[in-house]
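anyone else get weird line breaks when pasting these?? whatever heres mine. first is seq + C-alpha cells for prot A
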Amino acid sequence: MEVDEAAVLLGAHPHGYLLLVGDAQGGAPADCRGWRQLPGLLPGSTLHLQPRTVVGHARGPLDDRDVVLLGHPVDVAAGITDPTAIASRLATTWARSGTDAMVREAADLGGRWTLLAGRRPPPGAGTGVAEARPPAAAHREVELLVVPDTHASQPVHVGRVARRAAVASAPALVAAALGLDEDERAMDLLDLLRERRSGRVTYLPGLRTAYLGVEALVPNSLLRLSLDADGLEVEQRRFWPFRPRVATEDVDAVYAAFRERITAHTALLAGLGRPAVSLTGGLDSRVTAAVAAPALRGAGGFAFTYLNPRDAARAPAAVEDVTVAREVARALGLPHRVLRWRQPPAHGTFDVLHRRTYAPLLPSRGAAHAMWADLPTDLVQLQSNGGETGTTFLRHRPEHVLTPRRLTELYLGSGADVGDDLVEELYGGYLDRVPMDADALLGFDDYDVLYWEQRMGRWGWHKFVDGDFGHRILLPFNDRVLLETMLSLPYPLRHDRLLLERLVAEAGVRRVPGGAQSTVARPSRTRDTRGPGASRLRRGAGRLRRAVRRRVGGPPRPGTHGGSVVTARTDRSTASRDSAPRAGARSFAVLPPGSAGRPPEGLRRHPLPDGGLSLWAHPGLPRAVTGDASAWVLVLGDPVDVPDGLDSAAEVAHLLHRLLADGPGLTAATERAAALCGSWTVVLGGPEGGRALTDPLPSWDLRLGAEATALVGDPALLRALGAGEGVAVGGDRLARTTTPGPGVRWQPDRLPDLGALATASGTDGTHRLAAHARLLDRRGRPVLGLGGEAGLLRLLPLLTGPREGSGAAGSCAAGSPVEAVTWWHPASTDSTRAMISGGDLAFRAGIDQRLVLVDDADPAEVARVLDRALAAEEVLWLGHRPGEAAGRRVRSLLAAPGSTRRVALPWSDRLLPLLPGAALE
C-alpha cells in the first residue's frame, strides 16, 4: 500500500521533541528526519522539533538562562496563551526569584506544554572569574531543567549513557538516540499484566518503559540534568505539592472558584483553533461541553463521539454514549457527529505513523485512526480526561501504609496474588524516587495522588497523542489550580461529584433531555434480562404480536383530503390505539360483486361508480373517486402532478377525469397517470375499458387475484381473501381490461411510452425535480430520512432549510426548518455504519440528525418509533429511487400498522430519467 511520507512526517510523534544533551548531539535518529534542529537554543544541547510542535523561547534579563515552552501553555490568571510571552515571564521570575519560584509559576499554568530551561555557564567559567551562583552549582558547565504540565500530558522520557543524554516525547526516540535496546522482560511483563487485568486499562507502572535504560517522568516531578567535567547527572525529583492542601466544606465558595477557573481555562483553550468537544454520556465531558458551548457556537465548533459498530451491537453503554451525547449537544445548541471507530489499513500511512510513535508497543488505535481520518486538522479538541483527579477514581479507600506491595495490590486489584518478584519489578524503588509519605504530600490523599501520577501519567498521555496525530487535543482539567480547588473538598463530596453535578444542572444537561424535541427516539419495548429462555419467549411473542398487528393496523390520523365524490384522511385525534381499525393503514382491494373471500375487519366498503365494483379500504387511506358509470377515476395515496402543481388525491382525480371523460380519453389519462410522482395507485374506468397502475417505486405491491377479477394492494390481503399470491403488476407494468362493468377481468400489460410526454413538457430534469420538491415542501416541515446516501441532501437548496455548508455552529440547532432522521438498530453493524454515514452527511450539510432507536429491523417497529419521533406537522422524506428492492423497502415501511403519515418521495417519478439535465444526481 502506498504511504504518504509527508503525512507520516506531520503525524508521527505529533507535537513531539527530542533534546540531545552533551555528547549525544552528534546525530538524531531516523524518526527525526525532516524535523527542525535548534542547536544551542539551550546550553549544551540540540533541540529537535517535530514540524507541528509549537515553541516559545525567552532569555532571562542577564542573558544567562533560557526558557523554552513546547506546546500550548495557558496562563489562566493573566489570560495569556502566547508561549513566548509566558516563557518571558518565567525567565524573569527565574532570574529574580530563583528556580523554585519559576517552577511553581510554571506548575500553575493550564494548557498542554513541556518546559525546558537551561542555565548557561557564566562568561568566566573555567577561568577563575567569580560568579554570583550557589556554591554547589558553581562548578557545573551546563544545568538543564525539564518540567511537565499538570498531568504530564506531553510525556517526558529520559535516558543517559556516560556523557550522552536524551529527553524526548516518546521512549523510542530516546532509545534510538542512545542506541538502547528493547526491554524484553518489560514486554513479557506487560503481557502478564494484560492477562491479570483483563478488560481493564493496562500500562507499565512505576517509571519503567519498554526500553532498557529509558524512564518516564511522572506528573508532579521534574528532571534536572547537570553536565560538567566530571560527567553527566540526571535527577528526577518531586516538586509538588509545594503548598499544603487547604481543606474546606464551604461548597459554595469552592464551586464559585471551580466554575470561574474551568470556564476561563476552557475559553482560552477554545480560542487556540476551531474548537470541538469530545462528548460521551459521562459527567466530565458534559461539564466540558457546558462550559465550552458558548465558544463552540461562536467559532464553528461542534461535539463528536466515536463509536465502534461492534461495541454498539453488544454493549448498551456504547449506544448510550452516542444517544446521551446527541441529546446533550442538542440541549447546548451544538452540532454533533459520530465517528466510526475502525482499524487502519495495514502498511498504510496511519499504520506507519502510529507504529513509529508508539514503538515497540501497539496500543488500541481504532479511535485514533477515526479522529485522524475524519476530523479537520485545524481542530482544537477539548478532552475531559483528568476530571477524576479532582473527584475520585479509587473509591475503596481503607487505611493503609503505602509500600511497593500496596502499590502493586492497588494496580492489580484487591485480592490479587502478589509475589515479591512482581512487587520488585513493578514498584521496587519507586517510592524512593517519588516519595508519597505524609510529609511529602502536605495533606493531599495518597489515593488521589497515585491515580494522578500513575494512571494519568503513565497511561493518559496515549489518549492525548491519539488525538494529536491529526489535530490538537487540549484539556480543560489539566490545570493544577483547578485540581487543588476540587481536592479541597472532603472525600464524600468529591465521591458524589458535587461540583460537576451542580455545573451541569445549571447548564440544563444534568439529566438526558427528552420529549417532543428530543433528537433520540427510543423503542417502547424493553429488553428482557432474565436469561436466554425468557429472551427466546419474548422474541417469539414479539413476532406473533407483529404478525397480528400487521393485520389489525393502527390508529387514524388527523386532517382531511378533499375530493369531489369521496375523499378520506384519518382522524388521529378521535381514535385510540386500542380502538384502531384492524387492517393495515394502506390496505385496499377493488373487488367484483360476489367475491369469494371476505376482506379483514377494519376495511370499509365503498361502491365505485360503475355499479358493480367495490373499493374496500382502510379508513385512513387517502382516496378520491370522481365520475359516474360512463367514466370514473379512483386515486389512492398521495400523488403529485408536477406540471399543474397538484398535490392531493382529489385534485389528481379531477385532472384525470377531465382527460378521461372530456378530453382525449383513456390513453391520455393513462399517460398522465403514469407520469404522476409520489406514492399512489390509480384505477381508470370508461367505455374503452379500464387501466390500473401504481407509482414507479413501486410503494404498493399491486396484484391481480381471484382469477384476475380483483385488484389488491398487498399480498397479505390477497392471501386473507383466499386468493393465494396472485399476479404482481409492479411499477413497470399496468393492469388493463377491455370489458367495463362488473364482469371485468384484468391482465398485465406494458406501460405507455412516456417519451413524447417528456419532450412535450418543455423542461429538464433539474427543473422538474425542483418543482416537485417545492410542492412536497408545502406538505409540512421536511424531515429527511437519511442513511448512508447523500441524495436527499442535494435537495436542500430547494427547501426552506439551511444551505449546504460545513456543519457550522448553530445551523444544526433545534428549530431549523429542515432536519434529518435515521432509524438505528444497534445490533446491526450495517445499520450502525449507515447511521454514522448519515450523520456525517447531515453534519456537513449543516442540518440536525435525529436518531430513532429500534429493537430490531422490523418495519412495524421502525414505523412505530418514527411515528413517536415526528411531530404531526412533519413530513418524512425518503430518498428511494425506482426499483424493486427500493420498492420493497418503502412498502415495508409504509405498510406498517398505523403508518398513515404523509411521506415525500422526490425520486418516485417515471418522467425524470427521460428528461435532459443532471436532476441533482
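and prot B, same format (seq, then C-alpha cells)
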Amino acid sequence: MSRRTPRTALDRMRTPHGPRGFLKTAFVCVLMAGLLSPLSRAASAVPPKAADTAAVADHCGGRCSDILPPGQNGNATLAQILLNQAFGTLPEHAQDQLGPYARLATGHQSLTDSTLNTFFNDASFGVPADQVASTLKPAGRTDVTIVRDKKTGVPHITGTTRYGTEFGAGYAAGQDRLWLMDLFRNVGRGNLTPFAGGAPDNQALEQTFWRNAPYTEADLQAQIERAAANNGERGRQALADVAAYVDGINAYIDASDRGRYFPGEYVLTGHKDSITNAGTIERFKPTDLIALASVIGTLFGAGGGGEVDNALSLLAAQQRYGVVKGTEVWESFRMRNDPEAALTVHDGSFPYGGRPADPRGAALPDPGSVTREPLIHDRTGSAATRTAARTSAAVAEAAVSSARRGMSNALVVSGEHTASGHPVAVFGPQTGYFAPQLLMLQELQGPGISARGATFAGLGMYVLLGRGQDYAWSATTSGQDIIDTYAVELCQDDHHYLFRGVCTPMEKVERKNAWKPTVADGTPAGSYTMRVWRTKYGPVEYRATVGGKKVAYTTLRSSFLNEAESIVGFQMLNDPGYVDGPAGFQRAVQHINFTFNWFYADSAHTAYYNSGDNPVRATGVDPEFPAWAQPAYEWRGWDPATNTADHTPPSQHPHSLDQDYYISWNNKQATDYASASWGNGAVHRGDLLDDRVRKLVQQGGVTRSSLVKAMAEAGLTDLRAEQVLPALLRVLTSTPVTDPAAAPAVDRLQAWLAAGGRRTETSAGSKTYAHAEAIRVLDAWWPLLVKAQFEPGLGTGLYTAVTANLPVDEAPSAAHGPTGAHAGSAFQYGWWSYVDKDLRSVLGESVRGPLGDTYCGAGSLTACRSALLTTLKEAAAKTPAQVYPGDTRCAAGDQWCADALDQRALGGIKHPLISWQNRPTYQQVVEFTSHR
C-alpha cells in the first residue's frame, strides 16, 4: 500500500503487475506458455499487403494529428506479461506513443508545424500502402477489413456493410483491450472483487461506481430498450450497431481462446489454465456496454451533488455569523457566478442553477443529526480488516463530494486570427494515465460512418472524440448540476418513506461478493454485501432529522437509468451525412445527456455547445441544498418510473458560433450559468489557457504549433505560482524581508516567478526540476498559509466544513485531491481564488465579487504579513522527505518522481514514469484546409 493518503478509485485498482513473488512459481510456465500460445495477435493476421480500403474524402490536408499514450496495444499474453515482469520487454505497440508524448514537455519550445508529428501521430484517414503492417478479415468475413499501420498499430476498419463495420470495430476492440473491457464491465456491475481479487483497491473501485449506479440486469436491459424505442430509426440502428459490435468482441474471444493468445491476466486471476486451457472467458452481451457506460458517465459526465455537505457548511456559517451574514459569507465562498471567473463563452447570459430570489422547499438537517448510509455489510475474512473499513470510508466520503473529477482542455481559434485563415484546434480529454489506457484509437469507415479518433474501450461502436471527413470535435467535463438531493420523510420504519402521500417500501438492491487469493492478487479470502436502498428519488446516501422528523437523504441524477440515451448523439457525430457544419454538430451533441463542453472546428467555422439533461426545477428550489421530496419541489414533468423530466431547451444551454477563440479547462461556461464546483472565481487553471490564447489572438497569425506551445506551457505551469504568488509576494515585501529564515525563500520564489513559475526539468531526462527549492517551498507553504489566513476568521468549525466542500490544494504531487497522485491533472480544486481575493482586499486593491469578510490578519496588512512570514519559515524548514513522503513508485524526498506521471497498470504490463505534464491524455491538433 502507498504511504500516501488514499488515491482515487481508478488510481487504486490492484492489478496483476504488482507482486513480484509470483514470478518464482509462475515464470517457469513462460516456456510452455510460449510454446502453447503465440506471443501476440500477429498470428491471426494476414502478412502485410496494400490496404484493402476504398478512398475516403479527407479534407485535413495532412494537418490532423493525435496522440494517446502509452500505446495502442493493451493486450498481452501470459508469456508477454512474464517477460515484461522479468526483463522489461514489451509487446509490439504497447509503448510507442509514450515517448513522443513525454518529449513535448521539453521539446515544445522549438516546435514548428513541420515538427509537430515528432510529438504526435499523423491522423489522416487510411494507411499508405508502404505503411501497412497487417490486413485482417475478422472471422473470415468478406464485408470488413482491419488494416493496422506500422508506426502505431492503430486499427483502420473499413466495412462494405453497416453490420460488418461494427463487427470489425468490436473485433479490433477485443484485440486491443479485451482484458480492460472485461475489467470495467465488472466494475460497472459491482463485481470486480470476485473477478479480479479482493485487494482493498479493488474493493474501493467497485464500491465507488456501484454506489452511484446500483443497477440490476433488468435496469440495464430496460435502458437499451428505451433508447431504441425513444429515438426512432436512429435508435433501432444504434441497437443493431451494439449487437454487431458485441458479436465482433465475442468472435475475438472465441478466436483467441482457440488460438490461446488471449490476455494473460485471465490466467493470473484464475479464469483460465495456462497448461490445459480449461476455464472460460465470459462472452459479452449488450447490457455489459450499458454497465461500462455507467462507469464512464459517472466518472466524467455527471455534475452536481454535495448538497448535504453544502447544508452543513451553510449551517456552520450561520452559526458563526448569524443567518443573514452567514448566508452572505457562504455564497461568497461558493462562487456560483463570480464576476472575475474565466469564461468559455464570452458574450450572452445563460441563467441556470443560480440562487432563487425567494427560496423554498429546503430541507436542512438538524445540527448533529446527519449520518452516512453504510454501503458494506456482513464483512468476513480480509473484508473485515481495518484497512478495508478505511477504504470504504474514503470511498463514501468521495462519492458525495461536489468536487468531482472533471478534466480535459480545449483551445480553439477562429480562422480570422490564424495564419492560414482556417480554424485551428488543440483539444482532448484528460482521463488519467493507465496501462492499458481507458481510451483506444480507431478509424471507422462504412455506410453512414466516417471517423477517426478515440473511444472508451468497450464503447467503440462509434468514435467518441475525434475527426470526420472535414470536421473535428472534442469535449471537456462541464459538471453543471444535474444531481439533486431530496429529503424523503420516513414512515413505519427506516426502510419505508412517504411518496406523494403514500407510505412506500424502499427497494433493496444487493450484491454479495466473495473472493479468494490468486497469483495476481494474494489478498486472503473474504466477502461482503453491498446494499443500496433505492427510492423513487434515487439511492439513499444519508440519514438525518429535519425539524425533528426522520428523513433519508437521496441522490437523484438526471442521467440515472438513462445513460444509454446518449448513444444516438455519438452516432450522429460519426455520420458525415448528419454533421455537415456547425449546426449539425450542435444538434448532434444536444442528444448527449452527459455533462460535457463540446467543441467543433472545420475549415471555416468553430462552435461550442454545453450538453447534459439539465432538469427544470420547481420555482424557488435552490439546487445547492436538499429539498423536500414532495410534488411541489420535484423536477417539473418528472416521471419516477423512468426518471425522465422536463429539461431546459437547447437555447438555454451555453452555446456559441465562430467566437474569436474558445478555451476550456473545466472552468465556468458562461455568465449566470452556475459554476460546477466551489471556488471557481478569480483564479482557475482555465486562466492559464485564457491568458495565453488571448495574447496569441491579439498578435494574430496563430498556427498549429503556436497553439500547441500555449497548451504545453500552461500544462507545465504551477497555477499558484503564476496567479497567486504575485499577491503573496506583494504582501511579504510590503516591508523589506530581513529575517534570515525567510529572506532566501522569498528570493527563490521571486526568481522562480520571474522564470515563469513552471515545474520543468533542468534538461530532458534530468529528473531534477529547475528552481527545485522554490517549488518545494511553495508545495509546503500552501496548506500552511491557507490555514493561517482563513481559520482564525472563519473559526475551526466553518473552516473544516468549507474544506469538505473544496480541498485546499491540488498540486501535482498531492494525493489528497480528487485526482490522486501521479495522475497529471492538477490545480482544478483548491483555495486559490479565496487566497487571491482576500489578499487583494487586504492590500486595498480592486476586487470584483469579494469574499463576505476579510480574513488574512483580520484585514490588517501588518498582521497578514506576519502570518504569511511565520508559515513561510515553517515551510522553508521542511525537508524534501517531509514534503514528498514517497510511495510505492518513489523514494521519500524525490520531488520529480512525486509529480511524475504513472501509467497505472490495469493489466500485467508495466511502463516507466514520465515527467509531469498537465495536459489531455488523448489529444488532437487539427486544421482543415477544405470542406465538402
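btw re prot B: The first helix runs from residue 9 to 12. The radius of gyration is 27 Å.
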